[in-house]
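Weekly structure sync, notes
Attendees: PL (lead), two postdocs, one rotation student
Agenda item 3: pending single-chain targets
PL asked that the sequence for the first pending target be pasted directly into the notes so everyone works from the same version. It is reproduced below exactly as submitted, 76 residues in total.
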Amino acid sequence: KIDNKIIVEVKDNGTGISQKAIDKIFQPFFTTKPTGQGTGLGLSLSYDIVTKGHGGEIKVETKEGESTGFSVILPV
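Predicted structure, written out during the meeting:
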């Protein structure tokens, strides 16, 4: 908890997100998975719930080939 905000951070040790994809990850129906294996709605819905529903923010940091981290910042 910092400055009346709660911050939840999640980080993986996967392959990161390409710069080509990073600008699109919160768009509805964007997916890097093959056809039929993903709807592309998960991050889009999460973004809308956090930002529009709760007045918060979602931030992403990625290092291609290393990791990706997401921060969900919510006002309290």
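Discussion points:
- The chain has a mean pLDDT of 93.
- The longest strand covers residues 67-75.
Action: rotation student to compare against the earlier draft before next sync.
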